[in-house]
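Pasting two entries for a bug report.
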Amino acid sequence: MIQPKFRPSERTPNSSSNPSMAVSAFTPIIRTTPSPSFTIPTSPNLTRSRKPKPITRITALSDPFVLQIAESLEDSLPSSSSSPSPLQKLRDFSSESLLSTPWPSRKDEPFRFTDTSFIKQLEVTPVSSLPSPQSLNNLGVFQDTHLLNLTLVDGYLIDSLSQLSGLPDGVFIGSLSKIGSDEISKRVVEFLGGYGQGDLFWCLNGVGSPDLVVVYVPEGCRVEDPLHLRYVSNEGSDKESKKLPVSNPRVLVVVEKGGEIGIVEEYMGGGGDDDLSYWTNSVMEIVIGEEGKVTHSYIQTQSMSSAHIKWTSIQQEKSSSYELVEVSTGGRLSRHNVHVQQVGSDTITGLSTFHLSGSEQTQDLHSKIVLDHPRGFSRQLHKCIVAHSLGQVVFDGNIKVNRYAQQTDAGQLTRSLILEPRATVNVKPNLQIIADDVKCSHGASICDLEEDQLFYLQARGIDLQTARKALILSFGAEVIDRFPSADLRKKVELHVKKLLDPKVPSEVV
């Protein structure tokens, strides 16, 4: 029998004098118990008794590699005080889930096209402490300024690199432990691990996240300037090293009725080293109240030797609006899981993503939109470019229109551009419709540049190489142009140009 409730600070009844007998939440305890006897009636006048058959050992279902990571994450957390942490509910749930969750393989349907084995071949070590002041001075990534910004380095919130002045009354942005209002604390704790629980990586984040960053917007409040969340991975190892430092940043956004905010998430490597190996395992939960509005920009440009796995979970109430614009170009393995749950009528959801995959890169998007109420509206556009023969892109998009989601208008489109032979694109668009009064559509295309388009430009005096560059950039511009900020659009466009053509001079916007 596996006992998941032990914490590292607890002891077994006979271990008070021996600290080495502490039991972790991830140490399976196996007991041997005889099975009870039972009888099987064979006729009204005859029964046959079966003798008890002792069970010598119950086979543990736990994955040793998963438990090893979970234990190291648990040990890396700062020692708790006498009062229980508000995150304890989330950590307990995640701990119990990990006891029976194996590491994903290509045999598992959600990971059929995504290979995570290179993580398993390395020694995963959690980032266990705040970065030193000297390392913060050497980051050199914040030459631009934003009115509202929050900086997390290796999963830790750094106040000295953040700027939060000028917030409207009632808005809170910061660490969960620093919330001064009991009302806001109670409201935030309601959503900790309460909905949208994800897979193994979601649970690992729940165990290993050192703190929770909270963004709270009260009823009827509109935050004029976007909040820029900058995630910096500063601790990493060389490509030849067998160590893989892992960080677990976690953010919860709660927007009450009629509230509005814009959020920009930017994931980057520190120090400008594009060969550092590290693993960013991130989670963001967004709760949007009735008539609330959230615009979400997400940019991922981490090291080409890193692993980037992210969960974004959205809960939308009646007449709310959520818009995501994503550009992902970094990471040896980059996977984004987006789950949207419409829990009210007249909701609006928009997902626009652009992925660029180069040598030995995997860019993966798994999205799910669930519509349960009338007059829901959703649009999803996924575009990707595979620019190398060893590059790979995965798209698994699911839109589910349930029985009571009548008069729903849902559309999904994925377009992939392959620039080199033997490059790989795996797309799996999925539209499930149970309601009968709906307007839904989806489509998919995978191809190289069309000859007619190239001929059209060449007929106007443009050489073939220039024509190809122009068409490739315009392919991704449809998503990039949806960023709400002109400075952000220019910055991302320059970055994509640099990746497609290294001769483009590097500039900082």
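Entry 2 (this is the one that rendered wrong in the viewer):
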Amino acid sequence: MTSTLPTLAIPGQRLAPVSSYAAGPGTHVQNANIYASIAGPVLVNPASSKTAKSTLSVSRSPLRKAAPSASPSAPKSTAPGPSKPRYNTLPAVDSIVLARVTRVQKRQATVSILVVLDESASNNKSGPQPTTTTTTPTGGSSDNDNIEAILSSAANPENHSNSDELRFQALIRKEDVRAVEKDRVVMDEMFRVGDIVRGTVISLGDQSFYYLTTARNDLGVVMARSEAGNMMFPVSWKEMRDPVTGAAELRKVARPF
């Protein structure tokens, strides 16, 4: 008799024997048992054939709750409200993130992840941007979930403090900055310390760093200050300009929306 599968799993929790299920993403096998490798909801993917086993996996994203079925006695809503978006509490592969550059080296740039954008934000770029979730290593959301306030505060040099150490850290390697002429990339011309960058997660990396890429037209620097301390605006995919002094500075610029 097989034991009941848990709804949520924590890392290292035993889920089921390999005789009953196949191990999927977010799990590992040890001593003929399947264990959770990450924290999250437990999912069972049905077998594709009668001879195969169902696949057991642990998701990084919380499950979307099904909308309750309408009953005849329930009052009808006058206007359909927007559905509640689903958030990632942890950066996952293909997650779109906003991050602040904290260090620029010859081969890579180190960034501190500020926001993990909702999945629908990357799929529906033409619509209004939904509320986002700020991240901390504990997986909690910040009280200040207003993206404009987060970015305005992050772009202010006076607010750069040791709080970066409490956020998820990531690396943008030289070969992941842009899709063309990778061998001609100069990191100091792509990013500067304090820039706000939109990137996507390409690897969970190791225990210290995620790996991001900006090698798409919609990815790159979205906010930056000039050497004079003024907010700049983009004039091309590789240049931003100070509206006060008129000076131009090189950046790997994200396509503005």
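Dev reply: Rendering is fixed now. As a check, the viewer should reflect this: Helices lie at 119-123, 147-154, 187-190.
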